[in-house]
Request: fold
Amino acid sequence: MKQASEKPIVYIVSDSIGDTAEFVVKAVASQFNSGNVDMRRVPFVENKEQIKDIFHEASECNAIIAYTLVVPELRKAMEQETLNHSVCTADILGSLMGAFSRVTCKQPSYEPGMLRQLDEAYFRRVAAVEFAVKHDDGKDPRGLTLAEVVLVGISRTSKTPLSMYLAHQGIMVANLPLVPEVDVPEELFWIPPEKIIGLVINPEQLRTIRMERLKALGLDEDADYVNVSRIEEELTYARRVMKKLGCTVYDVSNKAVEEVANRIIRLVKGGNPI
Reply:
């Protein structure tokens, strides 16, 4: 009779990298004394022969096999080998996938690594938001060349809201205000024109937006900031810079952030920018 082991051996078997199974095994092991366990990960399993080899090794050392296999052929092979050997196995995904199938009346995609793909998308969004905050309103011109999209325009043309919206789609965005009295950073001219989006707006609409901004801040509403002549001067300057850059220009007048952002996303993905 095999002796109980002080330090259980668990084979982590997966057709992906095996992170899910390892996390579950650690959680279970923590319920047993010190939680000390010898985990032997076997990732990216692709065929039945690998599964047979795993069972041969596991049976020699009285190990447990914890698996997260989603490819049907591999799951069947694992179930068959379980019947052929006196090895303890734990199907970590199987019962829950079955429950989901019964409730949703749908079959799983049987695609390994889907959770990792979701995690990667999440962390990319987080990184994109951090990038957008760091490079908002021209804070760090050195980062312009690292951006996937650079938004340029005069004050209150939705640069920051657009940056945040695009960042939540996982796009690295920087934005830069264009002011007639301030030189454009040279880094802007190092960027391919297709990565730069110029934003313009109707002068009267911009004046209304700026008036609301001044009210919110409790500032003088007679400021040059809301003077139509000044606004037109700023827009003329901005258009001149955009022409020099050779970038795509979008008029954001009466347009929702989502509408403009979706145009930019299509452009980034190589689609029709219109």
Remarks:
- Residues 116-268 form a domain with the Rossmann fold fold (CATH 3.40.50).
